[in-house]
Amino acid sequence: MRHTPPRVALFATCLVDLYRPTVGFAAIKLLKEAGCTVVVPEGQTCCGQPAYNSGDKADAQDIARSVIALLEPYDYVVVPSGSCGGMIREQYAALFAADPEWKLRAERLGARTFELVSFLVDVMGMTGVEARYEGMATYHDSCSGLRELGIKGQPRALLATVAGLTLAEMEDAEVCCGFGGTFCVKYPDISVRMVSDKVERIRATGADTLLAGDLGCLLNMAGRLQRLGHTVRVRHVAEVLAGMTDAVPPIGEGQARQGGAR
Question: What is the CATH number of domain 7-121?
Answer without folding.
Answer: 3.40.50
